[in-house]
Write a structure and sequence with these properties.
This protein is mostly beta strands and about 425 residues long. It contains no helices and 28 strands. A seven-stranded mixed sheet has the order 1-26-23-18-15-14-13, with no helix packed on it. A seven-stranded mixed sheet has the order 12-11-10-17-20-25-28, with no helix packed on it.
Length: about 425
Amino acid sequence: MSISFRYYRHLLMWLVMVTALGVTGGCSFDKSGLARPGDAGQNNSGPPDAAIVADGTVWFDAQPGSDAQPGSDAEPGSDAQPDAQPDAQPDAYVPPCTGDTWECLPDGTARVCQDDAWVAVGACPLGCDVTARECNVPSNVPGDLMDEGTGALELDSNDSIVTIYTDTGEIDGADGQIRPPMVGLHGPSGIYYEQRSQGPGPGLGVFVVQGLTIDTTVVVNVVGTRALVLLVNGAATINGVINATARGNLGGPGGFNGGAPSQSGDGSCGGLPGLGGVGGPTGHGCMSGSGGGGHAGAGGSGGNSTCGSQASGGAGGVNGCGYVELVPLMGGSGGAGGAPIPIINPPATNPVSPGPGGGGGGAIQISASGGIIVGAFGGINAGGDGGRECTSAGGAGGGAGGGILLEGPTVMLLGGGRLAANGGGGGGGDCS
């Protein structure tokens, strides 16, 4: 199993000084050709050429029939033109920098001083740590995906059972389909989905939303071969339960399947099948149990056989297939399938029916820019499953626990909340 938290707390104070230069636009008016009534050179007996009030503002150009024909003195707007357009406002003042100063900016980005000039570091969707000089971005996926979703995923009592399909992008609720199977942005829900690869690890099913709320009455089941990544551009509040567990011999999302009878579990840390041999007065053989799958820790060994050669149990899967950081994001390896007890003489009186190994738990990542709260009645389960029942065989091994990765500026697990990624044990010997 592997459970990882990445959270960052920071107090940011930022002072911006802006110097603005005020510019007043002006205008002038050409008074040539205009005069007050009674001035020399004007026809005093007739109507005035132009009326001018005391402050010099022109109210009308000329009376009909006067010496000055309309338009002869000044066409409206022709004499009085603005001197100039107001000057463009200056850019905000950016203070110079020295050394290798690192700064977190109010817009969610960061910058660093290089050669006495600021260089943009980029967006910090999960916060910025000036002390550690880190811009926090989601693990396993590009940070710019955080902006792709346009709607929130809010699950209440009307959606008591919800299924998220990591291989298709479909989300179904008890009250109907929330998102159809498709790649890209689904307009009505505002939920974005895409598929990504991550080298040797399982594929990723990435969902992007603007907020996540799961009420206490809601159970979310995650199904598929791809690990689940939920990017939340906002806060995530989980008061219900998210299940990313194995289902029988099938691994959870991003986990690996249990082995078929007599076969090792899937995944590079799959459990090994049990061993045995002929023995006992009846000629029946004995078979030890099979090993459980490994992940961040080694899987449990199968139980020893109890008769005949008393063979040791199958080895559990080794550790080292998963990392505490959950990069890449993957679930647990599968347990080995049970091995049948060899029947030599007389013929078997019971059917030989070994069971398959249990699947490994899935992997889930929630990265939220507004922080994550797992409430008192909330929880996330990424457990592996136990080996299946058997007859006349060694017991099958259980699958390893998966992984849970929670990232945000704050991550809170309230009293009563649960995070679980338990693994199944090794199979018992001589199942009959």
